[in-house]
Amino acid sequence: MNKKIISCAICGAETTREQNCNLPLTPEELALAAFEAYKAGAAIIHLHVRDEKGIATQDLDLFKKTIGLIKEKCDVIIEVTTGGAVGMTDDERLEVVSLNPEMASLDCGTMNFGDEYIVNTLPTMRKFAIAMKERGIRPTLECFDLSHVYAAQMLVKEGLVEEPFHFSFVLNVPGGVRYDVETLDMMIRRIPLGCDWTVIGVGGRASLDAHYGALALGGHIRVGFEDNVYYSKGVLAESNAQLVERAVRIIREAGFEPATPEDVRKHLKLRGGES
After folding, report:
1. Residue 117: which pLDDT band, with cuts at 50, 70 and 90?
2. Which of 16, 114, 131, 137 is the most exposed place for a label (fewest CB within 10 A)?
3. pLDDT by residue (tens digit) across 78-111?
4. 185 vs 31: CA distance, rounded Å
């Protein structure tokens, strides 16, 4: 596929309005941000939702409302989070798969998250993988560390995750593995040959550097306020769409085209959303 997938994580669980006043929080704001990112060239929206206080939640009604509003506006692929936020239980995080999204994230190990940490044991990972497989949801195998790559391969060997495999390397989280192209290359070399993968660089400099690293090594790109609120050093991004627009330009300058949602559905063999 001579096309590159752009995923857009429009709000995340930790980003605040104090960091960027343009952060979308309500279902209506999230739906508009998703639509604008889609128009700019994003094929996948990675979705978290927030409560009335702006705090990350896995509330099923809020997810259902937000997904419905997005679908009214466009046919973008929705990838829900099952990572949730620090302190959530496994059951809280997993409940959202009952909405039958096309894709969902699947964290592949316990990791530092700034001053906090998020626990993902092997039993948790198996539980999440089974739930997604039963519903025909394509997991994105999120790896914050090399050990997570090997843990993900255990799920593959146990038949809990089926081809085509889609990995996501999450680098530069405070307290985690720093982003550099050598580290990225090492992680890529340890996933099954022929897998698709996306790079997430957390923070302004790492986010942009990760775009170029992804394209140089054969991967895809993620942007969005979950990962980075800046457009350039000291300059806040105006919107998620602005970050998507730059990713599209970089992709085209590298000789590729941004993939459409339909391209991605065919490539990753998605079964379509039912929510």
Report:
1. confident
2. 114
3. 999 999 998 899 999 999 999 999 999 999 999 9
4. 35
Distance in angstroms (rounded) separating the CA atoms of residues 213 and 217: 6
**All domains in the chain, ordered by first residue:** 3-267 (3.20.20.70)
Q: Single out the residue of 26, 28, 5, 34 nearest to residue 239, CA to CA.
A: 34
Q: Any idea of the CA torsion for 149, 164, 72, 29, to the nearest 10 degrees?
A: 10
The DSSP 8-state label assigned to residue 223 in this structure reads E
Contacts of 87 (CB under 8 A, 6+ apart): 116
> Is-contact 189 195, C-beta < 8 A?
no
Distance CA 52, CA 271 (A): 33
Q: Over range 171-187, report the average pLDDT.
A: 95
State residue 114's pLDDT score.
84
CB 177 within 8 A of CB 149: no
Q: Which residue, among 63, 66, 64, has the nearest Cα to 84 in the 3D structure?
A: 63
Q: What is the pTM of this model?
A: 0.96
Contact 42, 76 (CB under 8 A): yes
Residue 138's φ and ψ, nearest 5 degrees, are: -80, 115
pLDDT at position 113 is: 84
Residue among 105, 114, 175 at smallest CA distance from 145: 175
Length reported for the chain:
275
